[in-house]
């Protein structure tokens, strides 16, 4: 097991959180995206933003390769583990593993609408069984000392009345959960793909705002459709934190101002070049340990979004044949140098 840090790295760039909640800004758990390489990249851009793993099912941990799913480096902290499951005993065992591996939070997924997840009787369909979710939360809290949190939707299918999500949150809160991440859309369990479920059901931020008004003692984070600093500012007038999803992945440099804007950080904002050099060194280590270069560069392709020459930069760092051929740090350095030769900082990329 890789040794992880015992405390979040909240002071390393001269900033001070003071009384600011650590989850004020977070990056959403995103399947196939927020793996350890992606989190390392995001951490190179922001020291304070709270990061989440991809969803990991209890079955994968209890019957699979634990290290493959849970291993991460201290440089990624603070990191939360998101679990998928619906059996209290299994979730308790998985949560205990998560704490042992150094995660700062255990999050239960009650928001994923995919049919595969529904077949496992977890994700968004759990919103119809608040007492079961409460039992799951209670079982996890009994065996871990880190926070146990819940990420959920505001309703399922055609159930849109506020009382549904209010009663869900109230029931889970009685089990000891005091941090809720509210994806401010309904989940349509039949007829829409996961992608469509992120786009078609309308966003109703006012529901999350009302939850905060009704449960002022709870920490309420909002998620869904946030793409600008102004939107974050507006949400923080009503709730305790904002979770960024695909905006953080497709335009990762968006994260670079989070420390200064939302955590009171005083250090200079990380440049694109600084973040790239950090990842170049990281990928050099990865390749020399036998890893695949493209496993990390795929998460970086939006770094120079909008910069003239960005297409050429992306083309070099997404060439699977050349990624496979990289076997040494020198190979990695040469590819990054070639990619950078396409860039013309200060000029905007043609539309």
Automatic annotation (TrEMBL):
Gene3D superfamilies: 1.20.120.1460, Aldolase class I. The active site is at 112 (proton donor). Pfam families: Dus. It comes from the Bacteria. It catalyses: 5,6-dihydrouridine(20a) in tRNA + NADP(+) = uridine(20a) in tRNA + NADPH + H(+); 5,6-dihydrouridine(20) in tRNA + NADP(+) = uridine(20) in tRNA + NADPH + H(+); 5,6-dihydrouridine(20a) in tRNA + NAD(+) = uridine(20a) in tRNA + NADH + H(+); 5,6-dihydrouridine(20) in tRNA + NAD(+) = uridine(20) in tRNA + NADH + H(+). Residues 1-25 are annotated as: Disordered. Residues 27-331 form the DUS-like FMN-binding domain. It is an enzyme of class 1 (oxidoreductase). PANTHER family: FMN-LINKED OXIDOREDUCTASES SUPERFAMILY PROTEIN. This is tRNA-dihydrouridine(20/20a) synthase. It comes from Cupriavidus metallidurans (strain ATCC 43123 / DSM 2839 / NBRC 102507 / CH34). The gene is dus.
């Amino acid at each position: 097991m890789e040794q992880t840090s015992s405390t979040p790295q909240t002071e390393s760039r001269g900033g001070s959180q003071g009384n600011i909640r650590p989850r004020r800004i977070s990056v959403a758990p995103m399947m196939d995206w927020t793996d350890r390489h992606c989190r390392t990249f995001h951490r190179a851009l922001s020291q304070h933003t709270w990061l989440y793993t991809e969803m990991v099912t209890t079955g994968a941990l209890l019957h699979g390769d634990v290290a493959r799913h849970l291993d991460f480096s201290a440089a990624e902290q603070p990191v939360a583990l998101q679990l998928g499951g619906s059996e209290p005993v299994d979730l308790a065992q998985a949560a205990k593993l998560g704490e042992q591996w150094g995660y700062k939070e255990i999050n239960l997924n009650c928001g994923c609408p995919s049919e595969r997840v529904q077949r496992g009787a977890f994700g968004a369909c759990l919103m119809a069984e608040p007492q079961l979710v409460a039992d799951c939360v209670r079982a996890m809290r009994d065996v871990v000392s880190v926070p146990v949190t819940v990420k959920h939707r505001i309703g399922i299918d055609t159930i849109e009345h506020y009382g549904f999500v209010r009663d869900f949150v109230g029931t889970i809160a009685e089990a000891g959960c005091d941090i809720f991440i509210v994806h401010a859309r309904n989940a349509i369990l039949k007829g829409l793909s996961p992608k469509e479920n992120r786009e078609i059901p309308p966003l109703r931020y006012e529901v999350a705002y009302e939850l905060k008004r009704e449960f002022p003692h709870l920490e309420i984070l909002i998620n869904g459709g946030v793409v600008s600093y102004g939107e974050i500012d507006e949400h923080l007038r009503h709730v305790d934190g904002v979770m960024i999803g695909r905006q953080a992945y497709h335009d990762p440099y968006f994260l670079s101002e989070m420390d200064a804007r939302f955590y009171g950080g005083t250090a200079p904002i990380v440049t694109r070049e600084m973040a790239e050099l950090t990842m170049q060194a990281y990928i050099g280590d990865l390749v020399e340990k036998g890893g695949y270069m493209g496993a990390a560069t795929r998460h970086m392709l939006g770094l120079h979004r909008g910069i003239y020459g960005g297409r050429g930069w992306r083309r070099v760092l997404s060439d699977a044949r050349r990624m496979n051929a990289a076997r040494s740090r020198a190979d990695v350095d040469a590819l990054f140098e070639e990619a950078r030769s396409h860039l013309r900082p200060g000029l905007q990329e043609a539309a």
